[in-house]
Each structure stands twice: as C-alpha cells, then as structure tokens.
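Forum: Protein Structure Q&A
Topic: Joint prediction for protein chains with partners

I've read a bunch of threads here and the consensus seems to be that you should model interacting components together rather than docking separate models afterwards. I'd like to see that in practice. Below is the full input, 1129 residues plus whatever partners are listed. Could one of the regulars post the assembled result?
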Amino acid sequence: MPETTRFLDYAPAPESTAILSLRESYGLFIDGQFSEGHGESFATISPATEKKIAQIATADASDVDRAVAAARRAYTSTWSKLSGADRGKYLFRIARLVQERARELAVAESLDNGKPIKESRDVDLPLVAAWFFYYAGWADKLDYAGFGPNPRSLGVAAQVIPWNFPLLMLAWKIAPALATGNTVVIKPAETTPLTALIFAEILQQADLPAGVVNIITGAGDTGSLLVNHPDVNKVAFTGSTAVGRAIARSTAGSGKKLTLELGGKAANIVFDDAPMDQAIEGIVNGIFFNQGHVCCAGSRLLVQENVKDEVVDRLKARLSTLRLGDPLDKNTDIGAINSRAQRERIRQLSDIGEQEGAERWTADCKIPKNGFWFAPTIFTNVSTSHRIAREEVFGPVLSVLSFRTPAEAISKANNTPYGLSAGVWSSNGSRVLGVADKLRAGVVWINTFNQFDPASPFGGYKESGYGREGGRHGLAAYLTSASLESSGEGPSSATPITGASK
Amino acid sequence: MTRLPVVKTYKLYIGGKFPRSESGRVYPIATSKGVFLANAAKASRKDARDAVVAARTASSGWAGATGYNRGQILYRIAELLEGRRAQFVEELRLSEGSSESAAQKQVDAAIDVWVWYAGWADKYVQVAGNGNPVSGPYFNISTPEATGVVAIIAPQESSLLGLVSVIAPALVSGNTVIVVASERAPLAAISLSEVLVTSDVPGGVINVLTGSPAEIAPWLASHADVNALDLTGAAALAGDVTWVDLQIAGAETLKRVRPPESGVPVMSVERITFFTETKTVWHTKGIV
Amino acid sequence: MTTEQAISLAPGERATQLIGSDLTEKSLRLHLEGLPGVDAVGLEARAAALGTRSIKTTSKAWALDKIIELIDLTTLEGSDTPGKVRSLVAKAMIPDPSDLSTPRVAAVCVYGDMVPHAVEALGTAGGESGIHVAAVATAFPSGRASLPVKIADTKDAVSFGADEIDMVIDRGAFLSGRYGLVFDQIVAVKEACRREDGSYAHLKVILETGELTTYDNVRRASWLAILAGGDFIKTSTGKVAPAATLPVTLLMLQVVNDWFHLTGGASGGQRIGVKPAGGIRTSKDAIKYLVTVAETVGEEWLQPDLFRFGASSLLNDVLLQRQKIHSGHYSGPDYVTVD
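Posted by a regular:
Agreed with the consensus. Here's the joint model:
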C-alpha cells in the first residue's frame, strides 16, 4: 500500500450483484402469477448511481379490482378453510426460503433502496425471516392469544408500505395477516418495489395458494384505490402522518379495521450518568442508521446540560469514522438517500434549521458525483420552538437540545403530537424505569436504541398512529374483537354498524 | 292532602361540580308518556371545552393511581349505587317507562357492571400485557396504559345500563372521560353524577354533559386534547351530522375511534384495552 | 460509616496533575468511582460491529504485515529452557524462511530468568534486529508475593537487559477496593525499571481483565495504571480465561483515547499503548483488533510503541495467510515453522 494511503481508507470490499437474476420488467403479482399492469409503467432506479434497475408496472383501478377479487376468492374458497397448522406450514416455508435467498434479497434491497449492504444483510434480512418464523408459530394457537376463544379473521387486508425498509415492512404486514387467516393485497412503495417482486417468486416456490398474497406496484394513486376499495375488510398503512390522516378520513364509516404506523420525532434522553461511550453509539445509531430514514429515529437528542459539550464533542469525533458511499461496499455505514425528492426535503428542512438560528455542523464526507446523498448533520443550540425540533426530517439530521432536570426532560420529550419511540440513557436503574414510565411513546429503549424483534410490539401513541406490529399484540389488528356475553339486561350486539357521511 | 315535592334542578357534572350550562340553556325532559319531568341543562361547546380541561387536569392523577386504588374507587361507586337503588328505579320508570321489575333488573345489571369492571383495574394489565422473548440480552415488557381523555357518546336508549357499560371500561385503565348522556333520558346520568361526587372518585375523572349529542359531539370529536372517541351511542344522531362525520373529524388528530353499536354493549376486556396504548420497554441486561 | 483514611500515595506525576497535589487513597478512589459506567450490551455490540469491517486485498495485505510487526512473540511456560528461547528468537528474526520479505516481530516475551538467553540469541544473530526483549515480572502471573520480591523480580530482569517489563497488578487489592495500594505498587515497579544510565525500561501494566470481570473495573484499572505511570496497559497474562477479548480491548482503547485528549490531544497529548494478550489465534481476529484501534483512537496507534499483540500461535496463522496472498493458493502447516 502506498505510504500516503491510510489504513482507514479501506480497500473496496464490494458485494457482487452477480447473485441477482433480475427481469428487465416486472408485472403485477395477482392470483399467483405475474400479469400486465394497465397503468403507466415506470422505472425503478438505484439511488446511489441513478441507473435504472428494471421497469415496473402500475396497477390501475381495474388491476386493483382484479387483485382484491383474487384475494377474496382465495379467502373464501381456500385460505379460510385451511387449518391454522397448515397456514403455519406455509409461513414456515416462506421463512426458510427467505433464509435461503437472504443474500440475494439483501443485495437487491441495497441496490433498490440505497441502504448499506451491511445493514440489509445483518439487520433487515434476518428480521424478515424471523418475522415469518414467529408468526408461523402463532397460526394454530390463536385461541391462546388472549383475544377470547375462537377469534376470527377479517377477510381481505389492504396493505400499503413505505420505502425505508421495503422487505421488512412487507414481512411486518404479510406475516401476521396470513397467520390469522386473512388474505392480502399489498402495495410496495414506488421507489422500492424490487424485493417485493422477488418475494413474489418466493411465494411461488413456497407453492402458496394463488391469491392469498397479491403484490401490486404503483404510486400514491394505486395505494389510494386499494385502501378505499369497498371489498376490503382491513387496512394497514405505514408511512407519513399526512397520508395516515387522509386514510383515517376516507375509511371512516366503512367498517374497515384500520391500523396506522406513522411518523415520529423521538427524543433520545441522555443523563449525565449515562454509560457515555455506549450512549454516543446509541445516539449515532439512533439517527444515522438507515440514513435516518426511520420513523422511530432518535432525531432529537435531549442531553443533560452539564454534559452537553462533552457529548457533542464525542459525537462529532465519532462521526469522523462513519463511511458514506457505495451501498454495495461492505464497509459503507451511510448509504444513499432513497430519492431526489427525499433529499430535497432533507435539504430544505436543514436550511430552515440554519435560518431559525440553530448551529449546523456536517461530517466531512466525500460525496459521490451521481446519486442522492446527504452527509450526517448535527444541529446544536436548537430550541423547542424551532421547526427542526418539531418536524420529522426523515434523514441523517440530529437536533440537539438540553435539559436540566429529569422532569424537564420528560416534559420536552412528550411535548410533541408524535409518540412513537424514545431512548433513555442513565446508569441509575430507578431513574431509567421511572422516566420510561412517564414517556408517552409506544417503544422505549433504555441504554440501547433501534432494537427490533418479531416478538416485540411496535407502534405509536398519538399522531404516530395506532395499532401494534410484532408480538402477541400484533395479531389483534387482523382478528375480530371477541367479547364476553353479558348476563345483563337488554339486547346486545357486537356487530359493527357501517354508515356514510351525509 | 299529598305533600308538595321539592323538585330537583338537573345540572351538568364537570370537574366534580354541578354547573349550569354556561349558555344558560335548558331543554325539557318528559316521561315516556310525555308528561314534563324536569328541565335538563343543555350543554354548549364551551361546556364541552371546560369538560375536556377538567378531564385532562384529572388525567395524570387518575392514571397515576395504582390499579388497586382505582378498583377500590370503582367498587365504592357500586356500593353507593346499591344504596340508591330506589332512586334509580324510580327515575327509570319515569323516563324510560319501564315496569317496576324491568327497572329493577336494569339497576341490578348496572351495579353488576361496575363491580365487574372494578375487579379488572389491577388485573387487566396481566391479561393485555406481557413479557416479550426477544432474541438478545434485553428485558422486554409490553404494558398497556390509559390513552388519556376519552369522549363518549352514551347509548341513547338504555340510559343507565348502557351508560355505565361505556363509562366503566374506559375508567379501569386510568382514562378520564367526558360522557354525553342520552338526550331523551338524561336523568340517570345526572343521578349517577350525584353518586360519583359522594364517592372517592376525584373531580374531573368523569364529566357528564346533557343536551344534544349532535350539537356538542363534533366539538369533542375535533378537540385536539381528546385522545379517543367512543361513538357507541352515536348511530342515530339528530340533524345533519352523522357518526361518520365525527370519525372523520377525529381523524385530524389521529384519535382512536370506536364505532357505534346497537343496544347495550357487552362486558369485555376488549372494551378496556381499546382505550389503552401499549408501551414496549427494552432494557439491556448484563452482569459485567 | 467509617471515615476513610487520607492515606497519601506515592508521587505519580500524571496523577498529581489530574487529581491535585492532595493525592490520597480517598481522592484517587473518588476519581475512579466518578468515571462513567459501561453498558456491557452496548460495548459488546460496538465491538461486534467493528468486527464486521471487510478488510480485503491491499488493506488485508498491509494489515497482515502490520500484525507481524506488532507481535510480542511469547513463551511463558514453566518448562522453558535456553534452547526453547533460542528457537523463539530465531523465529522472531526470520518468521518465514521461505519469504525473507516477511517483517520481523516487535519483541520476544519471556520470563525474567530467561532474559539473558534471549539477549544473547538476539545478539549473536548479528546486527541491530530492532526486536525488543520483554520480560514478565512481579511474580507473574499471580502477583501474589511481597512488594520487595516483586521489585527484586523486576530489577533482575532489567539488569539482565530487558527492554520492556510486563508487570501484573495486585488484583486482590484492586477487587477489595485498595486502589492506593495498587497505585503505589505500580509506581514502585516503574521506579525499579530505572537503569543506571537514567533511562527506564518500558512498563506494561497487566490488568488481568479476566479476573477483574466487570467492564467498570477494567475502566478503573486502566485509568489507575495510566495515572501511576504505565507506558502500556495490557489485558491479560494469558494464564487465565478469558484472556483478551475485543470488547475489553475496545474499552481500554477508549480510556487511552480519553487520556490523550485530556492531556492536550494533537497538541502534546500523552499516548499510552495497549496490548491485548492471549486468545488471539487467527489473522481474522487480529485484523478486527487493528480496525478497532484505527477507528477508536486512530491509526497512529498502529505502531510497536503503541500497540502489541501478546501471542504465540497467531504468527503462524498470519504467515499462512500471507503465503496465500503471494502464491494464490491455500497453504498448510508444513510450510510454517514450529518454534
């Protein structure tokens, strides 16, 4: 190695794409096969190079009808008649096939999404397989799940997922839906359809009965047609709070069960007695993992004022060893921003942060010529009234605020319409649990961050949405509410009433 | 000569007190046969607003009480109801036109509903929450907690049993509530409030509004400081507003909305957990 | 509650500069107990993440050579003989007879009474080899002997010609909270490293992290060893399991990094060395340590004065890897020498 090259400039360690066997164009996966879409097709590109990967179909209204009809047929004639044990077996097959093709799927995910191969290989794919394994085992044990005796499936589930963890979000949606006996029509995000389409091939390899899972690609219009389709019993959406709100409005009165997993502006609270080196790792992981494209990202650092300077200095030093670049290089820590549009949003909000008076610091990263990139950025001297303290950036941008007392930390952490997650760092056991008790957030991480597990329920308070995914709780969204019979007076009915707005 | 009775004024119950409507309005309540019974306060949007403030103020104390404590308070309400059986039976006979035995049955059932739900306060967490066996060195628990402030449109026909069947489950987990009573037959709701104020339940935990659900429900549905909306009794609202409109209004702040049911809601744990949020806590586990 | 004796400690320059001239058992203890705690799960996760770096092609070739240059080739057996030591030195000087471009190791590490044989073997090999002689001392490995015995052990090794002394701390004293005692012993041993000409043998302080058990203890012991004047902090004797681990080494590197910045950083900060010893047998593992050093305290530390591997079988595994790179095919045990 020449004298002037540093060891830290690690030689390229590329993950080869030779493992992929992609098609030039993909159709819609309906009723067990690929077929043409009738909307205008579009290209999916690599956000790291802007090169086209494949041509993707768009499902129009007629395609959505077809898909829902296929799901309905499959529900009525096949899936609802299978025993839980058999449903479980299909899910176990799918889990195994995902494991077998994990490397291929990880490469495809990094290519299409822009996230580092290290993450798709070590985080996304293992969780995908685990999610299918976990729910496979529930399929024949629903009587024990705590929802009363003989809970029943709902029918056809319409599912719309985001671009930040494409295959993982697909697993979060499909696994519990199938385990509980529902059939599915799912729409991947328009910038990240690739792994869902390869997954369709896996479903064929698993010999899943036709129509049980239908995968239709397209943009916002397709998603809207899907969730508003009259023959759908259940809607599950993960994405922005704005769209979640719109879906809550449009499905009002329809009798459809709805769960939403929306945005967040999580507080990562660091006390002066935090295990300092691990807290720094936790902060970095909290906001820079997956380029900050995480609904539960620790985007607000609430640091106790007496250690604020030390924490900020250590953070900046730590960021100097983060590598930004080719997602398919195994040493890359920060990959590409998923789309030009998303990068613009991040840029805009960051500019606003400066204008509002916060102090901006950016890690010194070499930005590649092509592709969409944003270097990790830290804002200090952020006040609670700044927009960058309130609005979700969904990028590698950290806002640093301070507090003096635990009560102030809790108050600032809770002072948001969001309520998805939070982190707490301290060596004092009573304090961490006491603080966790008071945080209005669906997931609280203590002395750690961004931990996910199929056994652990995930979801938000307030405007971060409702319903939980993962764990025993994750079954609830896909089952009828069971009720005890009252011994009291009067007619009783648990049948939901549907209606229309005047 | 028969004794002249002292006629009661029926007011709202907000923050542990009995105010008239700030609008000064009342509306007449009649027996099932159309005979004038009393004027009931006609709540305005400002009364609804005040009720939300009262409910929010009481929220941290009620949610912060132990389950045992809440259970004891809810049980005491059942005790007091039992003591007042005759009054409630009389009111049901008048306002709903029930027979003596039907009214007795309804009162009995209402008391039993309170007792049933009271017993859940220190237990429902064990049924709805659990430890999660994650694959890593973490202690992981999911536990439900109260969602906060719940606005409820009570069943409009069953003025006592229906009423308690929607209030009690919301309170079990620590929610504070604003209940819009049966428009036609609100007396049981006000009498219930008299029971509440003599029980140990803190002011603001339960707030009762009488009047037109169609008028005040929209203000509750759109109120950003209300966490959940129970539209059990909202199937047939008078006027232009439907329960679907209320659900749409609730969507603005992502309220948890429970759609209408016909008849009297059955007792269920699900009615308790519907108004809770599940919090999942991860804690690292290491001995070195 | 008993009041703590304000026992004065031996003068350690670093310690007095940090804690003040009122350097007592109590003030030392207050400082050590005030250090931030360590979350084991987080520390181990960070170490594991550093272990996923993919070091290939030119980076790997560089790393393999660097590892050799950082090895303290070691024999510490009761059955060591002059012949064994001579054989070790020969290997240190020519690790791979089939490839004379192979770098030399940093040092040989032997028991104090074997130092003369090592010095002689290095001398007769001709010329300045640059390979140091490190001697374990202070009743290695247990450290259970009186201070005069430990000092005599040290002085002997220094007088025999050892360039470096690897001492052990008194773990019993540390675990029972007598930090001042541990401190004073290190200061005394450092003084015993003084040669007649006024120069000092290099002092490595072995913490025996396997016996300290908790990461909090390792952090405190690391600080204590630095404050008392150690030039290097070393994980283990290699005689107790677990010996060196990546998380423990990461933690020690974090302490060294903190000390460097505390004492001025790029403008005059003091650099302390780190030596993981025992249990590092494969190149793959050793490369993880190089990555950990570079990404924690900077690659400036990847030099013999600031980082060593205490190892014996590691060298051959690195040589096999090296041979594969040069030949293009996998090698075998017959192509590397036993020592």
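The first helix of chain B runs from residue 45 to 64.
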